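Quick entry, no commentary yet.
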Amino acid sequence: MLDLGAESTRPFAEPVPEGEEIARLMPVVARLREQRPDAVLSVDTLKAGTARAALEGGADIINDVSACVADPALLDVLAEYKPGYVLMHSQGSPREMQVNPRYGNVVEEILAFFEEHLARLVKAGLPEDRIVLDPGIGFGKNKDHTVAILKGLERFASLGRPLYVGLSRKSMFREILGLELEQRAEATRLAVALLAARGFSLWEIGVAESVFHMVSLTFEVPSGMAAGLLGRRKTLVAGGGCMVLSNLLMAFAPDLFFICLAMALSALANAMFSGTASALTYDSLKQCGRTDDYLRVSANCSQLSLLATAVGSLASTLERFLRFSGFYLLSAAFEGTAAAATALMTEPIVTETQARREKQTFRDLPGQLARLVRDSITALRATPLAAKLIVSAAVLCIPSYLTKMFVQQRLVELGWPTALLFVPMLLSGFASMLGVEAARRLHPKSLRRLYAVCALLCGGGCALVGAAPVLGCIFGCMLVQGVIDAYLLHEDQKLNDVIPSDQRATLISVDSMVYSLLMIPASPLVGAVGDAFGQAGAGLAVLGVLVALTGTAALGRKTRAS
């Protein structure tokens, strides 16, 4: 990206007439657009006429140091062309902004400024997803103000917009480090590197996701064993406690470390839930001799869960009131309520081992653990079908998670309004419910053939999310979620049928462990491909092709076997 300016905005600079500014600027814009058509051109101006000329000439972004205050007509230009826009905070004009700038709390005052002017720009007709925020280092700030802003940058993240921070060779490096202009390059590079470490690129989102899946991988089987040894009800309650802590951390996390810690707690909770709820459902039906009803009951549970998730996505319409921290606090309240309800459950007892669980002491646990490990390995070796089911489910679940993770970013790139980002999540939830309903009525003769069809459809849907226009992107996400939930319903029933009750929670946890093992490299790689191509969808398109190839391979093996 190249930022071009024909009027100086340094402290004490005199303004330049609009005609002269345009005459200086436009030949450079035209030449750059001709020689570098791929370049992103940003024009630094506070005048509506200059901005209009620049946008007509091929500029992509308007960088305005006055927030449309110096020339209110600029609002109309922005609403008409809808370019990228840098909303910058400045106390006063360049001629007087560095004359004794004063603030009560500089960070909170800039935050209030951003909130006010974001609303003003959106009301005028500029989509919010076209706006980035610049706290205006050096524009009406002294050394102490600058240090406070750099320390409090995460505070501005609550607005949900990217930050644009200009540090290059600023006078703060003289005031803080005693460096003259020609000596400030290294300080600039170091400051930018430190700020980048506090941002969140697609790749860094992938890193945080990898932390989630590494913890999930580490604790999947131990949590399943804990459910088998200590009781499934206690394990679910402990998982609920971890989710409450995770949401509280996410609400107030000051940096990437605490976000990763919250992700780790969330992963630990998911590991505790994984297999435990399914095993409880199956054994509850077994206790009353109704295991044939498992597919129907599991489908009902799945649809209720999906409906709750879909309805929950409507909460995104409250974003302006709740902000991101409010969502996490609300989620913590729901998780705490669910954990309290779980504590009131009665656990089904269907084997002698489960009946003895309440009487065993901590001294008995090592021996019980060793026996559980041996029995689980024996059960897995005796049922090779279980291993195949586990791997197939793990492969299909990768695009399920990543499409939901990246579809909103992809839609924003395509110009979808941020206020309507709940719509694809809501539609995906209903698609999942339809998939479960279709699976309930489906009686496949061959799970291999079902997997092949599902992998082809899922891969195609993933590729649509990554490469198609808006409607194709949304349809692709719906296709992925519906197909995967249809397959998982049959995979889950078959897996429960072929494994013993005492090892059920452990072996179903292996299912999730294999998924986590695949997600550890998949999540950052998909993000890295997106960063490399500059589009969130690039990695998803590649992933979709790979998943579809596994379906083709399954069909090929079936043909050779025939």
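second:
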Amino acid sequence: MKWPRLLVSLAIPGVLGLGMFLAGGAMGKPALPLPADAAAQARQTVIGSRYTDVAGKLLAIGHGGVEEARGVAFVFINTECPISNGLTPELNRIAKVAAEKHVEFYAVLSDPTVTRAAAQKHAKEFQIAFSEIFDASGTLAAALEPKVTPHAYVMDAMGKVVYNGRVDDSYGAAGKQNGVTKKHDFEDAIVAVSTNRAAVVSSTEPVGCIFESWKRPAKETKVTWSRDIAPIVYANCAVCHHEGEVAPFSLMKYQDASKRAEMLAAVTDNRLMPPWKATDAWGTFHDERRLTDAQIALFKAWAEAGAPEGDKADAPPPPTFANKWQLGTPDLVVKMSKAFNVPASGRDLMTFHVVPLNLPDDKYVVAFEYHPGNRRVVHHMIAFLDATGTARQLAKERGDGVSYVSFGGPGFIPTGGLGGWAPGATPRFLPEGVGHPVRKGSDLVLNIHYHPSGKPESDQGELALYFAKKPVQQISLSIPLTNRQIDIAPGDNNYIRTASITAPVDLTLQGITPHMHMIGREMKVTATFPDGKSKQLIYVNDWDWNWQDQYQYAEPIKIPRGTKVDLWARYDNSKENPKNPQDPPKRVTFGEQTTNEMCFAFLQLTVDGLRAPALGQLGQLGQRGAATQPGGRATPILERLEQLRDRQNRGGGGRED
């Protein structure tokens, strides 16, 4: 998202109103007071959370403000505080600096006495030229615990607070304005986080009007749809729950949600919805769909209060969803060769659709965007590449000539891949200089998971490709970490599989995709670095085959040479497992059918220091296979890339002699 042209405004002088006091370090009370450990957890989950601005526009913190965000800056403001208002021109200037430095910048208005209409009027009057979060229920205030307004914070890309305090020293500790501003602590911290440096000063005493917006509410105060629930629903649920989408009903109107208030409270309380299987403490990802404890408590309170609508003026406008290509005009748009008919009922279908690309030359793809033809039935999509013609042959042998059904996998070794799509996923370009290689003559193979809707449906989706316009320095690869030795006895509720690889070269991990079948229960992936330190890459503690995701890290993870990456997975083949497709349980082995199992974690990565080699060589690597070898030996594709890198370093340029 491009930042708007920043406007310069004149400070509007003001005097202190009744009930407003200047403070230097006076502690205000945050919303819904949290214990210390809960508050720390809340701060860690700010990155990836979703809010609406004062106009109702959706904001994804850390993922939507600027391209490749290196950090996030917040400043709490107040419509009546003269210090906060007087600093608006300076905040406009700092916001422009933040945009130039790839740091997202947000003001936060967190005051239950201010309506959304009043907030919009204030933003217009003071010519606020940056995104302003309308913290309707005080969740950001609970997480960051501001003392005064203005109170500034800077987070790195992982959600760690690296600066906390004043905007600058234009006001003294006693609330008196200084003659000359000498220190620009907030701006300095933004510049520091943009270059991955520690701020020279990490904490200062903020000066302003005491933040006391969220004293414990009176008993008669009710949570309402307009002020509290609608912003959460629009930011986290509406992407699936609107007309024509995969969810079974819409939540775009008060009437839609109020008649389901108790159900919404129940499914959010047990975290069934929004569907997000990765646990909080293991990784920070793009497009996260999870609610904070405070947001979940609001759903419960709303239902218990009888689901009141509240003041309609407080409600943000319902979101709109683009039908055109979000990334701009594509270089190539391809469509499924023919529509696929989805029956009214029965099990979900895992299908594969062969779409010829007819590329006359080798290409690098730097982004793709997928549009389902029928969002009511498309659960998710994964885009494979096949340069061998094998998928075409499978479609003739198993299907209708252009598509076939296969539960466990594509039935061939892909020669590449582009990534995946699920409702709520935001299309984005790969990092600059990185591309997916696509060989001349390759077919696109769309793996589409269909979910019957209760009536006969059909789908014919299309996919847009964006080719590299600049030289590609690195290739994006998908390496499977896997254990194919699976033999689960009937009744075994704690069957464990492990797998590991040791990185033969320096890698950068961009994303990860766990994969099991019906009786898989848990999967963990960790990295142990050469210095002995470890990092949790992902943990799915309640595996559900119906909710498989491709998890893209908000901040890519460096995997130095010698790092060991370990997978741990647990399976439950007992009759007590309600997801077991066999009753009574039977022996389960590795395979592609519903009654088989798999153990995969696909690692999306780039190889550091290796310039993109000849596309022809990469295609050959895919044909050789990429399964992890016993004993943690690196995959053939990694071994081959290590050889290519060594040849490059010796001056061979990454090509065969």
